[in-house]
Amino acid sequence: MKPEIHGVKLMSFSISIPTIVIPFKYQEEENWLQGIRNNCSDEYLRKLVDRNGNYSISGFGEHITGKYYESLGFKYLHRFGIFGGNRIGTFPEGDQVLKRRFGEDFFLNSRTLYPSFKNAKFELPDLLIYNEDCSYIKFIEVKRSFTNDHLREPQARGLALLKLLLNCDVEMVEVCEDSKLYKAEDNIFMFS
Q1: Is the model's pLDDT at 189 over the cut of 70?
Q2: Alpha-carbon distance 179 to 64, whole Å?
Q3: Please, which domain of life does this record's source organism belong to (predicted)?
Q4: Distance (Å, whole) CA 153 – CA 132
Q5: Given a cut of 80, is residue 117 above it in pLDDT?
């Protein structure tokens, strides 16, 4: 049943978000927890600690996903800004990738969109995947299957906005220990 306001039926739509599972080895998780992170190319992720300054699982899923995409010839960023939710220059590497992909004018215009969407309660995804010349980008939300982490509606809304406004690929990745592999199902969200 479609929602109504004052007797007027509102439009609703659904989006299917492609989902893949990327396996990791138990020892990779143990190394991450012990702070052995020299195989992580993202400086920010390498340095992530919990609020007490101890190494934790934070950033592990993003690292595994980034490493997988690097093995396919892509690069990845964990820190980027789009739609104007932060100041230009906060994430200079991300700014450069987005400018190279979309052009300076489009990049600057996209920075004005945040006020239009701030009430939509969306979240930007975890990773920006791109190729060497920035002709291809993909935004990815990462989940750790072993923590019952799941895609929340604001995250799905963020992926939908990126897909629709930037005409680029989006994806959800579930990282899973290789001994517990399963087949992923696409995430379908209904918005009303």
Answers
A1: yes
A2: 15
A3: Bacteria
A4: 32
A5: no
